[in-house]
Specification:
128 residues; mainly beta; Immunoglobulin-like; 8-stranded mixed sheet; 1 helix; 11% helix
Length: 128
């Protein structure tokens, strides 16, 4: 009897499998980017960014800023889409501030989002 219980327990423990998460990280919309129009060399410039996901199936929203070349920056956001669940009808959002400092005068260009989302463009002019 003891061996039957151990065998049944082993089948129970190893027979049940935990289904892995079906979600993945995907792009979400950067909805707001606020950048001052001018600043001086060496001055700290706050770049305020807000992003959102369309429903409650999304989590772990992250905003990133990457320098694509000398005077161009790209702002994007990603979130974890939990897959084909019944999703609550709420907007999930996050925001952040990037504090930048420029050491050269000129125009610096910012693009928020990549296609298929609406592209947002901003420019800041750095003065001596």
């Amino acid at each position: 009897m003891k061996y039957i219980f151990i065998i049944l327990l082993a089948f129970f423990l190893f027979g049940c499998s935990i289904e892995g998460e079906k979600g993945q990280f995907e792009p979400v919309v950067v909805s707001t980017t606020e950048i001052p129009s001018t600043a001086k060399i060496g001055e700290v410039v706050p770049v305020y960014v807000k992003a959102y996901a369309p429903n409650g199936c999304w989590s772990k929203l992250q905003i990133s800023l990457t320098k694509s070349d000398e005077n161009h920056y790209l702002i994007t956001a990603t979130g974890y889409n939990n897959g084909d669940l019944a999703c609550p009808d709420i907007v999930i959002q996050t925001d952040t501030v990037f504090n930048l400092s420029f050491n050269k005068a000129g125009a610096y260009y910012f693009q928020s989002n990549k296609l298929p989302f609406t592209l947002l463009h901003d420019t800041i002019r750095i003065q001596e």
